[in-house]
Every structure is written in structure tokens, then in C-alpha cells.
Specification:
The complex is a heterodimer of chains A (about 110) and B (about 110). In chain A, about 0% of the residues lie in helices and about 60% in strands. By secondary structure, chain A is an all-beta fold. The termini of chain A are far apart. Classes of the chains: A mainly beta (about 110), B mainly beta (about 110).
Chain lengths: ~110, ~110
């Protein structure tokens, strides 16, 4: 059975700190790994990673994939209270399938 | 672009009643997904469609759940009869092809009492 495991489950940091969120996976036919941010409502797309070692960056957020060790990290530098959310990792399977298997998420709280 | 539109936003129903959730995907997207989110199990894929055809319904919990996509702009997820354990947030998402991230709707929070 495909599995996506995120750690830590939850995290509380002070504004300005840097955080690293982890995602490990076991899937039969890996195609891509995606990160989403979920605040009060729907998850919103952050990054899609398909190749090892290539960092994706958007502002203070960055992510990298290691296909050999089967994990990805999401870094957030200079955290702000607006970064408080649940961060979801999802893995897409290969072939013609498009379904994503999600981890249960890391709940990040950024305090003043 | 209005995004993925789901209705209703909230639904409270009594056990045994029929519930129908609705979704309008983004125009031009050829994949549509129904997910269920609970605290215990996170986001679980129930079923997905490609070009209106159901591709994988292995996540549908049991025969009480059914989904249809009669055309490219509309899908329904029906639960009959509903049970308290069906209480969850149900998300619809759509995508264009297999190489892009999904866009999620705002979800329907279902409470079965």
C-alpha cells in the first residue's frame, strides 16, 4: 500500500525562525511529489517536484526532493504568523494515473 | 477564473437521509477528484474521473457512496443512506493533465447526526 509520512505532526515556532518539514514516501510507481498549504479551507498548491536535487523556491519557501532516499523537505525561512497552516505532502503515481496520495500533514503555528 | 465550485458549503443531515454534494470543476480541466478529509485519516481519495469517465473508485468506502460526472462541468457525490461516520469535509479538485497540481474547491462540511 502506498504510504506518505510527514513529520513532525505539529510544530510551534516564533516569528522569524526557520523551519524544516519532512515528507517520506513509499509508492509503487513514483511520478511526482507535491506540497500544499491548508489554512482554514481548501489546500492550495505550493510546489511540484519530479527530479532529485533540484530546489524549487518561492519567496521564503523552498523544497527539494531526494528520489534515492524517498523523501522531500519543505523549508520556510523568516517565518511569519501568516505561515501558520497545515502543510500537506502528496505523491503522484506514474503511468496514466493522476491520483495523489496525501500525508496527514504537519500543523505549523507561528507565534509572535 | 472562478476556481472549483462546490455546494453546499455546509450540510447537516439526519442519519439515514440521502446527501448529494455538487462540484463544478475549472473549465478545461480534464481530471476531477473527490476527496474526504477527517482528523483521523487526513485526505483520502474517493474517486476520480478523466474526461467524465470514472477511472478509479477503489477509495469509495462502500455501496452507500456513488459519484457521477454527466458532463465536463458538473459532478455529484451521493451518500445514501448517510451515517454519522460519514461526517467529514468533502473536497472536489480538478486538474489539467497529470503533470500539474490540483486545484481544490472550498469543500463541503458534512455532519450526519
Amino acid at each position: 500500500e502506498d504510504k506518505v509520512v510527514q513529520s513532525p505532526l505539529s510544530l510551534v515556532v516564533h516569528e522569524g525562525d526557520t523551519v524544516t518539514l519532512n515528507c517520506s514516501y513509499e509508492v509503487t510507481n513514483f511520478r511526482s511529489l507535491l506540497w500544499y498549504k491548508q489554512e482554514k479551507k481548501a489546500p492550495t498548491f505550493l510546489f511540484m517536484l519530479t527530479s532529485s536535487g533540484i530546489e524549487k523556491k518561492s519567496g521564503r519557501l523552498s523544497s527539494i526532493l531526494d528520489k534515492k532516499e524517498l523523501f522531500s523537505i519543505l523549508n520556510i525561512t523568516a517565518t511569519q504568523t501568516g505561515d501558520s497552516a497545515v502543510y500537506l505532502c502528496a505523491v503522484g503515481e506514474g503511468g496514466t494515473a493522476s491520483k495523489l496520495t496525501f500525508g496527514t500533514g504537519t500543523r505549523l503555528q507561528v507565534t509572535l | 477564473d472562478a476556481g472549483v465550485i462546490q455546494s453546499p458549503r455546509h450540510e447537516v443531515t439526519e442519519m439515514g437521509q440521502e446527501v448529494t454534494l455538487r462540484c463544478k470543476p475549472i473549465s478545461g480541466h480534464d481530471y476531477l477528484f473527490w476527496y474526504r478529509q477527517t482528523m483521523m485519516r487526513g485526505l483520502e481519495l474517493l474517486i476520480y474521473f478523466n474526461n467524465n469517465v470514472p477511472i478509479d473508485d477503489s477509495g469509495m468506502p462502500e455501496d452507500r457512496f456513488s459519484a457521477k460526472m454527466p458532463n465536463a462541468s458538473f459532478s455529484t457525490l451521493k451518500i445514501q443512506p448517510s451515517e454519522p461516520r460519514d461526517s467529514a469535509v468533502y473536497f472536489c479538485a480538478s486538474s489539467f493533465g497529470v503533470n500539474y497540481g490540483y486545484t481544490f474547491g472550498s469543500g463541503t462540511r458534512l455532519t450526519v447526526v
